[in-house]
Write a structure and sequence with these properties.
The protein contains twelve helices and seven strands. By secondary structure, the chain is of the alpha/beta class. β2 (42-48), α2 (55-63) and β3 (69-73) form a beta-alpha-beta unit. The chain binds guanosine-5'-diphosphate-alpha-D-mannose (GDD) and manganese (II) ion. The site of manganese (II) ion has 5 residues, from loops. It is a multi-pass membrane protein.
């Protein structure tokens, strides 16, 4: 890509872009920035957390022919806030902007955000909730409710009036950032909220409207799953990697499966089914729960989707049925030994047995 003479000047504006699995969006974002920031000396810092799709190598490839592109790659860590902080720290530009790497943020308002900073603003928030802004790009109704509730809660505790404190799109003077840095927590994904909470009363904060675009390629990472993964990562850190996280996740999912199994068993009993019938229902309910939870959590990095997911489910059910036969056999034996008053204990024994079997099967066959 040919680049203008401003590319060889020290950057005035650094655009920090946290990204995870955005390989398709990175090249598009670079050309969008190139067009929107004509005449400005800018650089972009992609902060990638070792995405399996090769986002970092894609950006590094582009950087080979464009000195305005930089890459920070972090290994063994995930987190939007900390990625943003480290990206800003990796640059030396006096002005910094932070935006998502999925093209949902409108790069065309960057010059206006920079102008505001130069005119004296310390923090400029790109807002979906002021006149001229729009939030229709949010994936679904559920996200709207979540977002609006979050905003209201945040506004309640914040020392500043910001219409869109959850925005992932903002610009900040580097000196302002540096003064707030010691107070930042760096955890989670609400970096702007973190900054706004830390900024003293009287900080000059301005807002610029923008239209939040729908995501074109890739998928959103900010859901419950991220929270769960974050929890596992913390656990991994606390135990210093001595506990294999995947097995831990599998065991926890298995535990939920056992609970599902036992609950279904009890409901079936109340509904008047006999032990074998109840055991059958409980086992399959547990199997389905385990498959979907493992697909989202335990094997999130190998997550099966669409047709491959249904094939995976079929394979999982078939192979686990073999385990379930053993499960039922063991449960019956246990029931025989322990007596008929011990339904839950008997079926739990069988279910634990099938968790072990399922782990062997799933990690070698289903999520290879
Ligand atoms: N380095 C890194 N590490 N980047 C991440 C991580 C991570 O753990 N998680 C997400 N990202 C990147 C994504 O690749 C994307 O570029 C950006 O952070 C935002 O993530 P999305 O997954 O696209 O978030 P969203 O569109 O659901 O949420 C957006 O809107 C929210 C408000 O509704 C973001 O702008 C949020 O910051 C914002 O609060
Ligand atoms: Mn997004």
């Amino acid at each position: 890509m040919p680049f203008p003479h401003t590319a060889l000047l020290p950057a005035q504006l650094a655009i920090v872009v946290p990204c995870y699995n955005e390989v398709e969006n990175v090249p598009m974002l670079v050309s969008a920035l190139d067009q929107a920031l004509a005449g400005i000396a800018w650089e972009v810092v992609f902060v990638d957390d070792n995405s399996p799709d090769g986002t970092a190598s894609c950006a590094a490839q582009l950087a080979q022919s464009d000195p305005r592109i930089r890459v920070v790659k972090r290994i063994g860590r995930r987190g939007l806030s900390s990625a943003v902080i480290e990206g800003i720290l990796a640059s030396t530009a006096p002005y910094t902007a932070v935006m998502d790497g999925d093209l949902q943020h409108d790069e065309q308002i960057l010059p206006e955000m920079l102008r505001r900073l130069k005119d004296g603003a310390e923090l400029v928030v790109a807002s979906r909730h002021i006149e001229g802004g729009d939030n229709s790009g949010l994936a679904n109704r559920w996200r709207h409710v979540l977002s609006d509730t979050g905003i209201r809660a945040a506004q309640y505790v914040m020392p500043h009036r910001i219409s869109d404190p959850m925005s992932g799109f903002f610009a900040i003077r580097r000196s302002t950032f540096d003064s707030l840095l010691p107070k930042l927590s760096g955890a989670g994904f609400k970096i702007l909220l973190d900054l706004a909470m830390s900024a003293p009363v009287g900080t000059r904060i301005e807002e610029v409207p923008f239209v939040f675009r729908p995501r074109q390629a890739g998928e959103s990472k900010l859901d419950v799953q991220v929270l769960v993964q974050f929890a596992f990562m913390l656990m991994d850190k606390v135990t210093r990697g001595r506990l294999p996280t995947r097995f831990l996740a599998f065991a926890l999912v298995g535990l939920i499966g056992v609970l599902v199994n036992v609950s279904v068993l009890h409901v079936s009993k109340i509904a008047g089914l006999n032990f074998s019938q109840s055991q059958f229902l409980g086992t399959y309910a547990a199997m389905l729960t385990n498959f979907f939870l493992n697909n989202r959590i335990t094997y999130h990095d190998k997550r099966l989707k669409g047709r491959r997911m249904w094939w995976g489910l079929a394979l999982f059910v078939v192979t686990c049925s073999v385990g379930a036969l053993a499960n039922i056999g063991i449960a019956r034996m246990a029931l025989h030994d322990w007596g008929h008053g011990h339904w839950s204990r008997s079926s739990a024994a069988g279910a634990v047995m099938s968790v072990v079997w399922n782990y062997a099967v799933s990690s070698t066959l289903v999520w290879r």
